């Protein structure tokens, strides 16, 4: 089992996932960025290890300094990175010919966290508003997957006999097509694509921001308030993708944190001319998977992930083999993978992307808290939850869970007699 979506628990203190799962012995502290930073260019050359490690230290130092920059400036975080890297390349002139490729790589690495197409899309407000939970930032689920958190929440774990009847009360394969809220009535009507009609006192909407961006006009009647529409349009919803490759046995050392790739200028110009291979420009790295012998996963950021999803699976598989040989074939005895799985979050109708961020915008008042505001004049009839509605933990699983508890608590306060 592998995680096509959320993979790590980010942080410990104040993180509801950690606080729920750690006492059960389900998590393990780790950091895939520990160890050497192996860096390969598109000509197959491996960068001198001390130079590569120094670049890594500088990059993460630049990230650490981003908080202070964000407090002084309002704009894209890309400006900070370009300012700092410009100084670095001046101090290291031997990297001049690789500067464009390295900037592109570090942009895409940073977007693994923020979700934008590039660091020019992400606002400094994203840095200020998002709160990192203290503690280890990459805790893995050992031999389990992130799905385990649902088992815990539904009390299916550790004792299946205590499972709550959630699934018995869940209707699957019934896509909601209309949420009708007539203020003359106390109820809300929900219509589904298969003809179902349901009436409720309250509806909690937990669809992704990507779905709201695409369907809010047709999903709600009457239309959502202007401020909420402005927030939906003004927030960013990231494009990310993971590709898992299975090998009969590892040809790499498990101590390796991963293999990072950057393109020489002349090679980038050539691959830009090949529409079916252009997505490889977004392939940042390959890393091993904790507790999964023989698995590597590649990460794509930005629009490149959307392009990859449009390419037939067989071609993606072959392109990856070519890329591995191109970047690392001179240094490793790379064997042919025996299988591949890729995510398709961007093209899936019920997701339309990965996770939210605060993007560079002409509006400075865009905030997840606006998206979280319920609709209803006398009482909250339509409520909103999901990671994009959390003011400080947007883009995370623990933010999504907290937002659900937030809306449940909102209803409990209306019906105190139902509280147990």
Notes on the structure:
With 420 residues, the protein is of the alpha+beta class. The protein contains 14 helices and 16 strands. It has helices spanning 16-21, 49-64, 66-72, 78-91, 99-114, 124-129, 148-153, 209-219, 226-234, 265-272, 303-310, 313-328, 368-372, 397-414, and strands at residues 28-30, 38-41, 138-140, 176-180, 188-192, 197-200, 203-205, 220-221, 236-237, 240-246, 259-262, 283-288, 295-301, 339-342, 356-357, 382-384. The strands form five sheets. It has a six-stranded mixed β-sheet, sandwiched between helices. Strand 5 and strand 6 form a beta hairpin. The longest helix is centred in the C-terminal third of the chain and has 18 residues, at 397-414. The two termini are 36 Å apart. The model has no long low-confidence stretch (mean pLDDT 94).
